[in-house]
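User: Can you predict the 3D structure for this chain?
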Amino acid sequence: MKRQKRGINYMVLILSVIIIAGVSTMIFLLTSPEHQAKKAVDTFYAYEQEGAFSESYTMFHPYMKEKFDKGHYLQDRAHVFLNHFDVETFSYSLGDASKVTNWKMEENTESIGTVYHIPVSQVFKGKYGNFTIVQDVYAAKEGGEWTILWDYKK
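Assistant: Here is the predicted structure, written as structure tokens:
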């Protein structure tokens, strides 16, 4: 009887260790900077997909906001992507996030210590057929918030 109880206790211990390891791994993966950066890019493109360009604009890094003001972005984004292409929305997919250090948005800007590169594919179906735009997108933490950057290097 003692031998059987010892075997059950051993199984419970092994299962407990496996469960704790699994939960710890999940917590680590969900809170990793790569995951957080990818989630920020996903949120940005979900806003864009909904036509909520005001919300997506707020996610831009200050360097991006220097490129164009909010009013210009709101008007241009809707005009170019939705009106010219004659589409109502688009689908998108994200690649894996990879860490990049000392990245620059363009040659004349200061480098940003750490960013995460996430390739984004946007699929449009419209008046001129179906087409995909693939863009390298970068996410960086600025003031405790994840921000979005595009690459402007020549």
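Helices lie at 2-31, 33-50, 53-58, 62-67, 70-84. The chain has a mean pLDDT of 87.
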